[in-house]
Design brief:
The structure is a single chain. With 263 residues, the chain is an alpha/beta fold. It has two domains: 5-103 and 232-253, NIF3 (NGG1p interacting factor 3)-like (Udp-n-acetylmuramoylalanyl-d-glutamate--2,6- Diaminopimelate Ligase, Chain: A, domain 1); 104-229, Udp-n-acetylmuramoylalanyl-d-glutamate--2,6- Diaminopimelate Ligase, Chain: A, domain 1 (3-Layer(aba) Sandwich), CATH 3.40.1390. 35% of the residues lie in helices and 27% in strands. Strand 2 (40-44), helix 2 (49-57) and strand 3 (62-65) form a beta-alpha-beta unit. The longest helix is centred in the middle third of the chain and has 15 residues, at 102-116. It is globular, with a radius of gyration of 19 Å.
């Protein structure tokens, strides 16, 4: 039986409601026709030129990404703009693009990040929504590390859990930590909630110099594992979910490859 894009969207939005997304976000259908028949899906973190070319080569019908292709409004759709150029290429090749960003962060990413780190007694770090049943949802998680460890050991733990070659650390490597906060992606705005939660270390990405040293001065260490470093877990998780929901659709995934090389 043919499965239309609209059916896939309905299930994705049941699990990750669009109203959970932040007001500044642009989650949802980026490019495409809701009535399109979907036989092959490509899961990626971003709809990069490389991802789109691979999708074309493999005759993919839908690219499912975490980060939206279109963030800023497009006033013109022409090849003069590199985002618009990607839109044109997808339309020419009958490829739809659907993105789940901060709605996925709230509904799944934060929990997944905590599970990867094996945090115990997890709770929401920054509450953004409250369900009718009283359950709280939001950005980030805070919980206890599997054991008390030094900041250096925690950094090694993060590298092992997320299969990372390196992380950046703000703080005393010999200091002892147990209560950890995690916010996959860009977590600068989660510094205050993490301090309020009395986290001893915040594990996140995109931390600037001043933000990092100021957090340490206020008593919290920071491990910057990179934006991609923590969020690549979206790819494997969504591939597994799609394979469970749509057994008749071929699911492909972007190869995990760190975009930043440390030499």
């Amino acid at each position: 039986m043919a499965i239309k894009l609209q059916e896939i969207m309905q299930l994705l939005e049941k699990e990750n409601p669009l109203h959970y997304a932040m007001a500044w976000d642009n989650s949802g259908l980026q490019v495409g026709n809701r009535e399109q028949e979907i036989k092959k899906i490509f899961v990626a973190l971003d709809a990069t030129d490389k991802v789109i070319e691979e999708a074309i080569e493999n005759e993919v019908d839908l690219i499912l990404t975490h980060h939206p292709l279109i963030f800023q409004p497009l006033k013109k759709i022409s090849t003069d703009n590199f985002i618009a150029k990607r839109v044109i290429k997808c339309i020419e090749n009958n490829i739809s693009i659907y993105s789940m960003h901060t709605n996925y962060d709230v509904c799944n990413m934060a929990r997944l990040g905590g599970e990867y780190l094996q945090l115990n007694n997890m709770r929401v770090l920054d509450i953004t929504h409250q369900k009718e049943n009283g359950k709280e949802e939001g950005l980030g998680r805070v919980g206890e590390l599997p054991e008390t460890m030094t900041l250096k050991e925690c950094a090694e733990h993060v590298k092992a859990c997320f299969q990372l070659p390196a992380v950046q650390v703000f703080g005393d490597l010999a200091s002892v930590v147990q209560l950890a906060a995690v916010s996959p992606g860009s977590g600068k705005t989660l510094i205050e909630p993490a301090l309020k939660a009395r986290a001893q270390v915040l594990i996140t990405g995109d931390i600037g110099y001043n933000d990092g040293i100021d957090a340490v001065a206020r008593g919290m260490q920071i491990i910057d594992a990179g934006h991609y470093g923590l969020e690549h877990i979206f790819i494997h998780h969504m591939k597994a979910e799609l394979e469970k929901w749509f057994q008749e659709i071929i699911i492909m995934e972007e190869m995990i490859q760190q975009p930043i090389q440390i030499i």
